[in-house]
Design brief:
Layout: E1 6-8, E2 14-18, H1 22-29, H2 40-47, E3 54-57
Parallel strand pairs: 2-3
Antiparallel strand pairs: 1-2
Protein name: SseB protein N-terminal domain-containing protein
């Protein structure tokens, strides 16, 4: 199974996160990241159903959202 990393730009646009080398991945996100080689077309095809059309390649920093900022799912009544 493959799980792609997405993020948001300061303007709120969703982007797919991609790295050209393992070293750049580690530099931005730290050691111990699982990764695979994936062609750009495959990544775009996987992100398209989510409405993500832009890729951010080799970002210097990938910020994480605190878990408290996640959207809550309303409880069934």
């Amino acid at each position: 199974m493959v799980s792609l990393r997405c993020g948001r730009l300061p303007n709120g646009e969703r982007v797919g996160i991609a790295f050209t080398t393992e070293a750049r991945l580690v530099e931005a996100m730290g050691a111990g990241q699982a990764w695979i080689r994936l062609h750009e077309r495959a990544m775009r095809a996987m992100l398209a159903p989510l409405g993500v059309t832009r890729l951010q390649v080799d970002p210097r920093v990938v910020a994480t959202t605190p878990s408290t900022a996640r959207l809550a799912v309303p409880a069934a009544v």
